[in-house]
Amino acid sequence: MPCNLTIEKAGDIVGACAPQAPNIDTTLPAAGFISPFQQSNFRDCVFRAVLNEGCQIQRGDVPIGDATTLRAVMLAIKAAADALP
Fold this sequence. Notes:
mainly alpha, 3 helices
């Protein structure tokens, strides 16, 4: 399956992995991903969902950290998918 990750789909993926977040500008800790373990689980959720869309990004393409917003994750996975050959 070819990779055709739209920004809307990237937003849907991030939202599905962080359903408790009030909005896309929420940081990972504010979305409930406080510990490194929780942030890693969020990264894995996003990574697997992007792979399921047919995009072979790297796990490290999904940013995590206390200052990371859901919007930053959405934009990063879109950019990583767009960089694919």
